[in-house]
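ok new one. same drill as before - structure tokens go in, u give me an amino acid for every spot. 372 of them this time. try not to just spam alanines like last time pls lmao
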């Protein structure tokens, strides 16, 4: 199907967030975006009134037709000290998991407001740099697909395969397949470069971490199980990551600072392995340069379904809270994690383990997370 046909079909589709009624005049590209990708319009409204010290840039545009180009924005703020630690937040890698973008838009809106009056935030932002990519896959989000507009699953698309001998932990085709875009979880052709959205992500991450000693990233997804999970790598192998002691220290810091939290902090490989995970790939590329802790927040969206089973009949229903009060709650519920990560990055020297403590932390993490 050509991209204009795709657009035509979703314009009239009952899955569109606000479907057009028949007989209305055809809408402009701008109106189409405002209706079908309200998160992008919301982001642009936020950026238009961002306080001093916030920089945004369009890293690339995804073309869906001659008229319809969707920007991939990055927003940066905090200290300009090039050696300060970094917090990197991203969402929307999977187009149907739009709740992640909503969580980051809520975060940015609150932060922009507080930057104008809260001296504690001003002081905090002098100690870290923050880069946010709230909508990594705007084409997929507009089209209501997990994949990007080329039908490729961006988190199966990086050039990294599950380690040999671990194939029992990959569930085909969800772990990534190369048959074609007619099935979900398509990795793309082996000989092709990474997709544009992933190349943008790679370029932004590389630029942002350059010269810094420490970075923590959080990429937000939804759709796995009933619990909210914070996942540590890897997706491509069961063997623990080299920075396991630091991950355990961070997990302990979070649990101690938020005693009533309800997240399951664990390696992703406890559940499944997958080919082509872009964060595994970026981490492997960068781990010699800095201490880089990539986290995934996986929102347990099946609860929303349990409370409202007819969501199953909506294409977004498995991944997104469709009732407004539940959406608000989901956005609200995760703000304390983001606030915590800002503080943890800004004060990383206070909790990152000393060399002598790393071995005991590693043993504790293996005992907790890697018992078969
Ligand atoms: Zn996802």
């Amino acid at each position: 199907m050509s991209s204009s046909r795709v657009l035509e079909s979703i314009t009239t589709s009952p899955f569109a967030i606000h479907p057009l009624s028949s007989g209305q005049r055809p809408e402009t590209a701008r109106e189409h975006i405002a209706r079908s990708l309200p998160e992008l319009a919301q982001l642009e409204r936020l950026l238009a009134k961002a306080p001093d010290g916030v920089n945004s840039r369009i890293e690339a545009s995804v073309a869906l037709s001659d008229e319809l180009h969707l920007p991939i924005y990055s927003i940066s703020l905090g200290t300009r000290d090039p050696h300060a630690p970094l917090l990197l937040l991203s969402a929307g890698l999977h187009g149907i998991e739009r709740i992640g973008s909503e969580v980051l838009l809520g975060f940015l809106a609150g932060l922009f407001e507080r930057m104008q009056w809260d001296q504690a935030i001003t002081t905090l932002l002098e100690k870290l740099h923050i880069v946010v990519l709230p909508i990594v896959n705007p084409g997929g989000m507009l089209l209501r697909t997990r994949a990007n507009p080329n039908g490729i699953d961006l988190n199966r698309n990086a050039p990294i395969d599950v380690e040999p001998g671990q194939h029992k932990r990959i569930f085909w085709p969800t772990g990534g397949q190369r048959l074609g875009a007619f099935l979900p979880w398509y990795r793309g052709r082996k000989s092709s470069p990474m997709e544009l959205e992933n190349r943008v992500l790679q370029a932004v991450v590389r630029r942002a971490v350059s010269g810094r000693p420490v970075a923590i990233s959080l990429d937000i997804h939804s759709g796995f199980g009933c619990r909210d999970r914070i996942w540590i790598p890897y997706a491509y192998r069961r063997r623990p990551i080299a920075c396991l002691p630091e991950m355990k220290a961070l997990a302990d810091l979070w649990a101690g600072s938020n005693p009533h939290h309800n997240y399951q902090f664990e390696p992703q490989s406890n559940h499944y392995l997958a080919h082509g995970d872009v964060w595994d790939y970026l981490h492997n590329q960068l781990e010699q340069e800095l201490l880089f802790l990539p986290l995934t927040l996986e929102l347990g969206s099946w609860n929303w379904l349990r409370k409202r089973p007819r969501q199953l009949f909506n294409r977004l229903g498995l991944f997104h809270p469709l009732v407004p009060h539940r959406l608000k709650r989901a956005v609200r519920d995760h703000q304390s994690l983001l606030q915590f990560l800002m503080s943890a990055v800004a004060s990383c020297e206070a909790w990152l383990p000393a060399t002598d403590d790393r071995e005991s932390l590693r043993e504790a993490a293996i005992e907790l997370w890697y018992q078969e």
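The radius of gyration is 20 Å. and btw Confidence is low (pLDDT under 50) at residues 1-17.
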